[in-house]
TrEMBL record:
Function of the protein: Contactins mediate cell surface interactions during nervous system development. Has some neurite outgrowth-promoting activity.
The organism's place on the tree of life at top rank: Eukaryota
Self-association state and partner proteins as the record states: Interacts with PTPRG.
SUPFAM superfamilies recorded: Fibronectin type III, Immunoglobulin
Lineage: Eukaryota, Metazoa, Chordata, Craniata, Vertebrata
Name of the protein in question: Contactin-3
Entry membrane topology: Lipid-anchor; GPI-anchor
Keywords for this protein: Cell adhesion, Cell membrane, Disulfide bond, Glycoprotein, GPI-anchor, Immunoglobulin domain, Lipoprotein, Membrane, Repeat, Signal, Transmembrane, Transmembrane helix
Domain Fibronectin type-III: 591-689, 694-791, 796-892, 893-987
Keyword check for Transmembrane helix: yes
Organism: Junco hyemalis
GO cellular-component term (any): side of membrane
Transmembrane segments: 7-31
Length: 1006
């Protein structure tokens, strides 16, 4: 039978079990989430923002000081990391109870030391910047405002200098445009509206962009609404955005000070220095004077600055002092070194900065303890009597209150017995009698080995010919045959002993070593010997043997690599002799080395280099060459001094263009010639400067009505001298003194058009174009005269008349219009004409040049009324037409040609006759006749007569063609059939042809 417990007992058991499990559940949660996070609200000066960190819940914390929470967190810390993020913020990762915290610091000086956090608890390593990812959640806080009330909208994000802020009004891409009434702070991200207007009502969204990622983050929209329960009155400026009372600025940095005030009316903002000094040209006022920007901050820019906000109700002033500082930067960092045990190490690190940096040294991450043999003075570390325990990773840390830099290097303290494996002694040395020979003994040994020498088995002692050198070597002077043999160097230190040997061969009966100099390209070495017996010659250069029957050694196209010692050996059956010579091949210098730019300004560069090989001919001069993206290859640079002596290894390049990227290289020259150029230096950019070259070809003209068009050739990029390049266009009516100026911000723009209804047509203007950039304004071009745009002539020509010339032509004449009425440069006149059967709209048009006052119109129909009108035109268009005039073309000329033309020749006299031509009723009456005489040589004469006969005198030995036409008011009629008069056989007449053409009845000869 199962013993059943009472129901209340079961209830109590379940309750106890529930309490037990609940206790552990709550305890677990407390350990996991509450032990640290419960402390966080109590910590001051914190701003918490959730982030993702290695798939673990993490808090990103901006902290002013870490010291006030160390005691709270120290017991729970598991491990500690320090990293430098891409966004240039120092971070610390703390992990406690599986909750991680990333503490961000604005300065490295805020980082806690190991001693502060507890000895032996933490280790420091590098963490990657990808470990921290910012949350893309942007907190937005907006406020409802009343009618004509000032407003501030907040964009709350984690503060960081790499963020930029903008605001969208209603919909993208309608961004809020900043002016004297609206201001977006790049320090806080807030939007300020000095005086709200009805047009400001709408939705506002904050846009935050990281300069590193370029990915904008959009906040949720917040409406700005109007309140109708009140009216905002006028009030004095209330400064909402102001700069700190004291702000330290780094050398060379760009300082931006913000100042903005609310008020009604909208306040005006001005800036000044309290010392009364004017602002230099580099200082820019932006955002309607709401921000002052000081680029390239220098010592002279430090001082007290004032922002003055003022309206009709009063004014307020914000003040702040800019102080100058320079973060530490290395002048001489430390490098890895290898030092022998028991030696002394002198390690110097030097940095500059303002205030002057202080130094401290770490070894393997620990503060280096100063003791008797370890001393630190002015950043220099000295360790005497080194031992193996001194090896390690050392850090020299230089710091001032504005920054910390460190340089690390490894010290290796080495202890080893002497070893010849890496620096063996020469196996064989061959010298002549009477010469001096040096034996080297340089084993690798730590500490340095002590060397002693033996010849064979005999210990060598110093005497007048034998010297023991300080580096362990041996020198034997005035060598004799008895000095030949094997020399042994015995190297010893406390860790062991090693030895090396060299064999000495002494040759006799030959001359001493000589030197032979050859230029590159020469190719013959001679060797001769006097022997009674046959001899053989060998040449030795390094190790190869060359056999020569005559004793001459031929080296074709000798090069620098052939320099060295040559030994000529002569051998007979009973003896041998050798003679040595040093061959020196002289050539042009090798390239200089390590070319670098030590200092650069806007127009100069200090260049230094190291000497290359002179190839046995001293360098006489150096030449510096420069190259830019705009040059064609390498160009010789202008230097000071102009001629660089061969013993000089630094020079100043002058006449450079500001704000241009340069490379430099150096060429050495000796008596042989110029050598190969050095490798190029690193690319460097000259500093910015005020532009010096104005635009060229300043002119203009043309355009539309009421326009003044000014053109120029843009300044090339290499002459713009800096960023922010643009043009200042100045112009004024001729005869006036006040210039009108405007700015063209695009450096590639070649023209500017000024439009104003007050501009008179074709009026002369004096124009000039200047240049500017971020450094200031440059010169103006020469003044040029440009005329404004023309207008069409305002009046029609007067005195228009039309005269009939023939059956197909009329002449139209007029009086030129006055110059003042032309409204420009008169190009000419346009004449339109039409006949009685045509419409005026379909009239034909012809043009006459501007200096003409008549025109002949041809190709017309006969006996027909033609109407015509004239107007003037210029480049702007045509003026009004004159009154219409008309003329009637003549009747057509007679269609019947002269018939029955009869001719006879007597000597050089030709008599012509023909039948009379009678015109028809619709033709012009005959007024006379025209005789045309054309020679085979191309000469043409014309004779007019009223009758039907003509007399011609022909004198040339030539053939002639003669034809006759009737003339009338309507023009010339049809030609008769041509008459061929063959070459005359009569003698040459002394009279010209024009005098030999005569007509009956006293008619005119043409």
């Amino acid at each position: 039978m199962i013993d059943m417990k009472p129901l209340y007992v079961l209830v109590v058991d379940f309750f106890c079990l529930f309490v037990f499990l609940g206790f552990w559940f709550v305890f677990f949660l407390t350990l996991k989430y509450c032990s640290i996070s419960s402390m966080l609200p109590k910590i001051k000066n914190f701003h918490f923002l959730p982030v993702l960190f290695l798939e673990t819940p993490t808090w990103l914390i901006q902290i002013q000081s870490v010291w006030n929470i160390l005691n709270l967190l120290q017991k729970n810390i598991v491990h500690f990391l320090v990293a430098i993020l891409e966004v240039s913020v120092l971070c610390e990762l703390w992990e406690a109870n599986e909750i991680r915290f990333v503490f961000l610091f604005s300065e490295a000086s805020q980082l806690p030391s190991r001693k502060t956090l507890g000895e032996g608890i933490f280790q420091r390593t590098e963490c990657h910047s990808s470990a921290v990812k910012y949350s893309n959640k942007v907190l937005f806080d907006g406020k409802k405002v009343g009618k004509i009330l000032s407003n501030t909208s907040a964009c709350v994000v984690f503060p960081h200098p790499d963020l930029s802020f903008a605001w969208i009004f209603n919909e993208y891409p309608s961004f809020v445009q900043e002016d004297s009434r609206r201001f977006v702070s790049q320090e806080t991200g807030h939007l300020y509206i000095a005086k709200v207007e009805p047009s400001d009502v709408g939705n506002y969204s904050c846009v935050v962009t990281s300069r590193a990622s370029r990915s904008p983050v959009l906040g949720s929209p917040t409406p700005l609404v109007l309140r109708t329960d009140g009216v905002m009155g006028e009030y004095e400026p209330k400064i909402e955005v102001q700069f700190p009372e004291t702000l330290a600025a780094a050398k060379g940095s760009t300082v931006k000070l913000e100042c903005f005030a609310l008020g009604n009316p909208v306040p005006q903002i001005n800036w000044r220095r309290t010392d009364g000094l004017p602002f230099p040209s580099k200082i820019k006022l932006r955002k309607s004077n709401g921000m002052i920007e000081i680029p390239n901050f220098q010592q002279e820019d430090a001082g007290l600055y004032e922002c003055i906000t003022e309206n009709s109700r009063g004014k307020n002033i914000a003040r702040g002092r800019l102080t100058y500082y320079a973060k530490p930067h290395w002048v001489q960092p430390i490098q890895d070194v290898e030092v022998a045990v028991e030696d002394t190490l002198s390690w110097e690190c030097r940095a500059s900065g303002k205030p002057k940096p202080s130094y401290r040294w770490l070894k393997n991450g620990e503060q280096l303890a100063i003791e008797g043999r370890i001393q630190i003075e002015n950043g220099a570390l000295t360790i005497s009597n080194l031992n193996l325990t001194d090896s390690g990773r050392y850090q020299c840390i230089a710091e001032n209150k504005h920054g910390v830099i460190s340089s690390s290097a490894e010290l290796r303290v080495v202890a080893s017995a002497p070893d010849f494996s890496k620096s063996p002694m020469k196996r064989l040395i061959q010298v002549q009698i009477g010469s001096t020979v040096d034996f080297e003994c340089k084993p690798r040994a730590f500490p340095k080995a002590k060397c002693s020498w033996k010849k064979g088995g005999e210990q060598l002692q110093e005497n007048e010919r034998i010297s023991l050198l300080k580096d362990g070597g041996l020198r034997v002077a005035n060598v004799t045959k008895g000095d030949a043999g094997t020399y042994t160097c015995l190297a010893t230190n406390q860790f062991g002993t090693a030895k090396g040997s060299t064999s000495l061969v002494v040759t006799g009966g030959c001359s001493q070593t000589t030197s032979l100099e050859l230029l590159m390209g020469r190719n013959l070495l001679s060797c001769s010997a006097a022997f009674e017996q046959p001899q053989k010659f060998w040449w030795i250069f390094f190790s190869p043997f060359y056999f020569c029957a005559s004793g001459d050694l031929m080296i074709r196209n000798i090069q620098l690599k052939h320099s060295g010692k040559y030994v000529c050996m002569v051998k007979t059956e009973v003896d041998s002799v050798a003679s040595a010579a040093d061959l020196i091949v002289r050539g042009s210098p090798g390239p200089p080395e390590h070319v670098r730019v030590d200092e650069i300004t806007d127009t100069t560069a200090q260049i230094s280099w190291q000497e290359g090989t002179d190839n046995h001919s001293p360098v006489t001069t150096y030449t510096i060459q420069a190259r830019t993206p705009f040059s064609v290859g390498w160009q010789r640079a202008t230097t000071v001094p102009d001629v660089i002596d061969g013993r000089t290894f630094t020079s100043t390049v002058v006449d450079l263009n500001p704000w241009v990227e340069y490379e430099f290289r150096v060429v050495a020259t000796n008596k042989i010639g110029g050598g190969e150029p050095s490798l190029p230096s690193e690319k460097v950019r000259t500093e910015e400067a005020v532009p010096e070259i104005p635009p060229s070809e300043v002119s203009g003209g043309g355009g539309s009505r009421s326009e003044l068009v000014i053109t120029w050739d843009p300044v090339p990029e290499e002459l713009q001298n800096g960023e922010g390049f643009g043009y200042v266009v100045a112009f004024r009516p001729s005869g006036t003194s006040t210039w009108i100026q405007t700015v063209v911000t695009s450096p590639d723009t070649p023209r500017y058009v000024f439009r104003n209804e007050s501009i008179l047509p074709f009026s002369p203007y004096e124009v000039k174009v200047g240049v500017y950039n971020n450094k200031g304004e440059g010169p103006f071009s020469a003044v040029a005269t440009v005329f404004s745009a023309e207008e069409e002539p305002s009046t029609a020509p007067s005195g228009v008349s039309a005269t009939s010339l023939s059956s197909s032509a009329i002449q139209v004449s007029w009086t030129a219009i006055p110059w003042k009425m032309s409204n420009g440069r008169l190009l000419g006149y346009e004449v339109r004409y039409w006949n009685k059967g045509q419409k005026e709209e379909s009239s034909n048009r012809v043009k006459a040049a501007g200096n003409e006052t008549s025109i002949k119109i041809t190709g017309l129909r006969s006996n027909l009324d033609y109407y015509t009108a004239v107007r003037a035109y210029n480049s702007a268009g045509a003026g009004p037409f004159s009154a219409t005039v008309n003329a009637t073309t003549k009747k057509p000329p007679p269609s019947q040609p002269p018939g029955n033309v009869v001719w006879n020749v007597t000597d050089s006299r030709v008599l012509l006759s023909w039948e009379e031509v009678r015109a028809m009723d619709n033709e012009s009456q005959v007024t006379g006749y025209k005789v045309l005489c054309r020679s085979s040589q191309g000469g043409l004469q014309e004779l007019s007569t009223a009758g039907t006969t003509a007399e011609l005198w022909l004198q040339l030995q030539d053939d002639y063609l003669i034809e006759v036409r009737a003339t009338s008011e309507g023009g010339d009629g049809s030609s008769s059939q041509q008459i061929l008069i063959p070459r005359l056989a009569s003698t040459f007449s002394p009279f010209p042809l024009s005098q030999l053409l005569s007509a009956s009845f006293g008619d005119v000869v043409r």
